[in-house]
């Protein structure tokens, strides 16, 4: 990915090196397995999948460094965030509206959000309660080693997916889906969650298409990196790896094939209407 000349976003709150006090989430073996199966990667609302509750803060509050990080990993993720801001701002403006970007929270180990406290074991996530994306950069090592999906554009896809959830919030999609889930059975809730996640994958593809059109960010092999990452974190792939068999009714993100297909659809079409996972059956 050609990111070195990209504008760095300063919408970053960097808590790396700070400790969060309070009643942080403690994941046992079972909880960690659930996180790996259902929420290890890419934007599950932790209130829905992990049942997180508001933490009661105790002790001193950690201090964030705001602005553009100075380390290479922070520079890269700030550049990708800047690319998402520029791309979605242009798309919203073309439709007569204004894009309000999310904040990106970088942390190590544990973090508190408006959706509750979370361990880094849950992976990157977006919290609609405070409209922030939460990311432990150590996850990218897991992406490379545990999921065998290396590459900078695989990492960019991760962030673009989370920003896709923010776009859903701005468009009112998230509220409608959560309201529908409150009236639904467990199986139906999971089906709705899958559609949410696949749409976020599609929105990641929309971002990639439009960012490349405007600023030529894609290099040879980048799309393949994103598709490999999407395949590696399909529900069926993760369940086979962790438990040896697949339980389709428990899917929350979609299969490897579905995730790749919807990312590719967004990449090929480059428009929000092309990402109507809810009307696709």
Give a brief outline of the structure.
The protein has 281 residues and is α/β, with parallel strands linked by helices.
How many DSSP-defined strands? 7
Q: Summarize the helix and strand pattern as letters.
A: EHHEHEEEEEHHHHHHH
State the share of residues found in helices, binned by percent: 40-55%
Total helical segments: 10
The total number of structural domains is 1
Rounded to an integer in angstroms, the radius of gyration calculated over CA atoms is 17 Å
Low-confidence stretches: 21-58
The whole-number mean of residue pLDDT values reads 86
Question: Assembly type of the shown chains?
Answer: single chain
General form: globular
Question: Largest sheet, described in full?
Answer: 5 strands, mixed
Strand order, sheet with most strands: 2-1-3-7-6
Question: Per DSSP, what share of the residues sits in E-state strands of 2 or more residues?
Answer: 5-15%
Q: What structural class do the secondary elements suggest?
A: alpha/beta
Distance between the termini: 34 Å
